[in-house]
Amino acid sequence: MRRLIDDNQDSSDEMTELLRSQGDDTVIDDRERLDITNLPAVAIIQTSTNAENISSDAAGASSNSPVEVIDSQDRDNTRRHRRDGQPDEERPLNSEHEEIFKYGASHVVKLFVPVSLCMLIVILTIKTTSSYTPGGATWAYTPFTEDKPTNTQRILFSLANTFIFMGFVITATVILILLYKFKCYKIIHGWLILTTLMLLFFFLYSYLNSISASLNRPIDMITICFLTWNIGVVGMFCIHWKGPLHIQQAYLILMSALLALVFYKFLPEWTGWLILGVISIWDLIAVLCPKGPLRILVETAQERGEPIFPALIYSSTMVYMVTAVDPPGEPQFAPDSINTNSIAVNVDEPLSEEQRAQRAEIRNINARRQLIPRSDVPETERRQEPARYVVERSNSPAIGDDDDDEKGVKLGLGDFIFYSILLAKASALGDWNVTIACYVSLLIGLCLTLLLLAIFRKALPALPISIAFGLVLYFSTVHVIGPFSAELSLGQVFI
Amino acid sequence: MECAGCTLIAFGVPFSMFVFTIAHHPFRIIIAMTSAFFWLISLLLSSLLWFAVVPLRNQLAFAVPFTVLFQEIFRYLFYRLIKKAEFALQKAQMQELTAKGMVFDRFAVAYASGYGFGLISGTFAIVNVLSDMTGPGTIGIFGHSPDFFIATAFLALCIILLNTFWGVIFYTSLDKDGIHRFIGPAIVVFTHMLFSCMTLLNRKSTPTYSISIVIGYVLLVGMVIYTLILRGFNINNIRQRLN
Q1: N or C: which end of chain A has fewer CB within 10 A?
Q2: Angle at Cα A442 formed by Cα A464 and Cα B159, nearest 5°?
Q3: Shortest CB distance from B127 goes to which of A100, A436, A481?
């Protein structure tokens, strides 16, 4: 049923040999040998470092053979060393700057675009409709209102709100880590699927409703349901199973924007500011502390050599496609893999429902396993995942080193959400200068975080720098820059 | 309608500049963004100054020169930053970078940073005016000039382009040796100050826009010519190219 091509960490030449002779290297699980007769072969390229058997079900991973952990950094170095024929130690500085540049420019911009799109959706919605304005309803996470007579009471109540909210976040994170630690993949996936389902269907439905209401363009129920159903189903497919990368990215952006709008609508004003600040600090603690929960999560994921929840981070490169794993320098292999992959899709039809589901699962898991150990963002209850992004370490052979597309940058959806919330709050004032200042400072913060990432090369929280810049520039623009530039533009004085 | 027209006047040329010269180069986008951030910080400092000196808040003639000075200081600081980055990159393997088309192009960096400065400066000047244009209201109903919007749009375009050329002149002359090293920045500071102080004349109920606009565009033409000279063009050279 599957052929595993093992990359035994040999030189790339040997790798090529291995790939060429894939037919001889076929590894077949005993329990699946029976299936071979009636199933067409599906080649799965396993570039991960070990000869671990791919379990057909992630939740049944208890039967997995132990995973050998090889630090991808070492592998990279080894490969580079072999390719260049000169020891890597001789140019540590060089490779560092090379990395900076490689991860730098294009990947930063690849993140700029989706973040800007998400912000654009949020700002346009806020500017055009009146239904997404804060106030009015409260929800369970922030039970107290801020309509208090004195400032002291307001501060106290917003503090209480923030603590409750953060309590939810932290509890959800801890639950998630426990589930992950004990390999309850099914529960996690069920959780994620339910959340996505709710987000896509309910929020999209209410979004369409409120848009049509505030634009005074009545739409009948059938059309709205039809739209919601179609968009939602395609989204579920693309996010949790497979689909074109761009569509998946578009859905992730859309979901973040919807969630940011909902947050913006339901969080009372000062609670919102407090949460923005506190969640950045929490992000910092959770990722960087030695015993921080997210750090534990990341390390566990790297030990197991698998991404956690691919659906919940925005990645700038291919995730599910085999081509992303294929070393581009080996064209003789690439078409083969693509073919077999498409076969794998086609042959699903005659299978029974159960087999189909099983194979889909396998493909999904395998596709994920082809990706490198990268740390992901956990999903908390309302997807306030402490956001961060991670550079995907390429496990593919050294030939791929020259290819930028091999290494994507990943940004947690939480970043999208909280950036957008900040920008939504900025744009709600009606002063565009505040919006622009916050936008520039958020993106500069993202830039700086990426620069730090290139230097430190480990998962970093993406919220703190950006949010700090954003908050500083928000308040200074509102209170200092705004009046000054209003004075200037009223007098038509150009500086 | 007026909003769309003024938007196109102010941002049409910068937008096409962005599309054709910057959008395809990620490095330039980042440079432009970072320089925009530097401009923001300089604006923050100057507005803090304006905010702190309470008695002179209505006298923009006090704050504007300082604003110009802060901007030029931050332009210089950004230049230092760029130099550091360039120095660090020179240590890196230039070969691989060249293969990726990521050569450190000084002219492109100067251009992109000037563009970033100009874009955010012009945007800050005009964006709220643009959003006011859409709203209900009539311009000039209290005896103000009816040309307020279109003049603002033209001046914003002028400041964007001027900043672009100032960036190029500033960085190119700092890279040169000898007398050019001082003349270029001095010209930039002087013309910037001149332009900003000329626009101070607009603070009347019925200003004569032709003064500031004409001066702005004359300065712009002057900056273009000076940039060409700095980049090594002269009349014969251009005539040969045309032929």
Answers
A1: N
A2: 150
A3: A436
